[in-house]
Amino acid sequence: MGRIRYASDVGAPVEVAFTYTDNHLFVPDWMFGVAEFEPSGDIDCGLGARYHTCARLALLRTTLTCEITEYRRNVVIGYTLRGRLSGTLTLRFDPLGYGRSVLTSEVEYTPPRGITGRMLAHPIESGVRSALRRTESRLRREIEQFHGTDLVGRIA
Questions:
Q1: Which of 146, 13, 6 is nearest to 90 (CA)?
Q2: Could you give the CA distance from residue 46 to residue 53 in angstroms, rounded to a whole number?
């Protein structure tokens, strides 16, 4: 299982950061490659919520199922993608001080197998690392805009 993790500070309290991230309407704004993110069940937030997801990555356009498999209010959200692309994105929120928090983004994915898989392992890991970095960067920026601050924490 491949695993990549990034941590960064966010210019918003944990409650604001989690509330923004928990709203499924905002997911296409920050999750890299996601064009649509619509509820596909009765539950639209929290543990067990399922979503119909359309992903666009370069020339690949695919439909995925996304489920929230880890959820603790103001602490953690875990998204599990199933389909042609699969893996788990876990977002953890920790308080950093007055009006700031730490966002830890972690992705777990199954690396390719076989001879071809070994040859493509490094480019795939590089692509996943880049996608996670872009997702984390966009999410941090969107949370700070939602909270009303710019990237250095000044009031906008």
A1: 6
A2: 17
- Reported as a single tens digit per residue, the pLDDT across 49-107 is 999 999 887 777 888 899 999 999 999 999 999 987 789 999 999 998 888 999 999 99
Cα-atom radius of gyration of the chain, to the nearest Å? 16
Q: Side chain identity at 17, as an amino acid letter?
A: A
For the sheet with 100-109, list strands across it: 2-10, 100-109, 87-97, 76-82, 60-72, 50-57, 34-39
